[in-house]
Amino acid sequence: MVCLQVSSGIKLSGAVPSHVQSPQTTCTRLASADLSGCLFPYFNMKYKHLFGPVPSRRLGLSLGIDPILYKTCSFDCVYCECGATTRLTDTRKEYISVAEIISELDSFLSTGPTLDYITFSGSGEPTLNIGIGKIISFLKQKYPQYKIAVLTNSSLFFYPEIRKELLLADVIIPSLDAVSNNIFQKINRPVKGIRPVDIIQGLINFRKEFPGKIWLEIFILHGINDTDEEIDKFHIVLKKIKPDLIQLNSLDRPGTENWVIPADEETLVKIKKRFKDLPVVMISNYQKREKVKSYNLKIEDAIIATISRRPCTADDLSEILDIHLAELNKYLDALQEKGMIKAVKKPRGLFFRVKE
Q1: C or N terminus of the chain, fewer CB within 10 Å?
Q2: Quick one: which of 217, 183, 193, 164 has its CA closest to 90?
Q3: How many other CB atoms are there within 10 angstroms of residue 186's CB atom?
Q4: Tens of pLDDT along 120-154?
Q5: What is the largest CA-CA distance in the chain?
Q6: What is the pTM of this model?
Q7: Residues above pLDDT 70, as percent of the chain
């Protein structure tokens, strides 16, 4: 373990990524190997498959579980903040060892941390890990005081065994970005064979089986799934799915594809009015991330200090600061909301720099 000097008087603790020693790629410079005085012991990545606790607008203080390999997903969504999917698949297997995840959870939770939720999320589709049910069962048996949430793209909900594995969770946050197949293909770019009609039926069946809360998220993109025709189709299927909450969301910053345009607030308000007989909220109406009690201003400072020296991608920052990508993205969103940083699309990806 070493410290990285990112600006005068600021040191970050954590493992040095392989590219840090290269002046062509690094955004920081190597300093002392002495850990004393490091301001960010938070970045000491003791856990490989847990991240946070992170400040979540919807879930408060949330400990993240990433049970999947980086960007392994059944979708390649045009808006994904984690970037393009590198392993597009609907094959379920133990991508990450269930025993390893349970061991890390046992280590972390045995200290009795204050948490609002333990959340399955990360940089891919968590239900692809065939052991997700075992992990949920372990948590409910040994640490029943903690609530469990699962963020999912809903792509595999037509499989009864997957729905059964999630029954012990407290909150499921599935996404449904389209009803029409052509729109679904344009936005979600799924593995061949996955159809919105099957996803919708899976969600309808899950509602009948699941005793917990379902907060269904719809990601609205300008000119694609915000037409009157598609909104009418959403309205029909939402009444059949019967979620406890419908969350309207859109892009905070550029997505995977340059042509993606976020829906403005006026559009989201209009859609919300169209769903007036349904329990609808706009994500933008939740409290800002920096107001969540777990928000760590030191992470903000570290990001600013790093990109002040040289623009970096989210992947660069994740490695340099030794923070899980899903956690880092929440801070990047907050900094953009406050107008402190901006994103610039370049051939290698989306680069973040301090806003002048």
Answers
A1: C
A2: 193
A3: 15
A4: 987 899 999 999 999 999 999 999 999 999 999 99
A5: 62
A6: 0.74
A7: 81
For the ranges 9-13, 111-115, 214-218, 291-295, the lowest mean pLDDT is seen at: 9-13
Q: Which residue has the tokens 């009609």?
A: 197
Q: In CATH terms, is domain 2-44+296-354 a member of 1.10.10.10? A: yes
What architecture does CATH give domain 50-289?
Alpha-Beta Barrel (3.20)
8 Å CB contact between 11 and 1: no
Secondary structure element (H or E) that encloses residue 329, with its range? helix 325-337
Question: For residue 20, which amino acid is it?
Answer: V
Q: Can you list the positions of beta strands (E) in the chain?
A: 2-7, 10-14, 29-30, 50-56, 60-65, 72-73, 87-88, 117-120, 148-152, 171-174, 213-219, 245-249, 280-282, 312-313, 341-346, 349-354
* CATH 3.20.20.70 domain locations along the chain: 50-289
DSSP helix/strand/coil, 355: coil
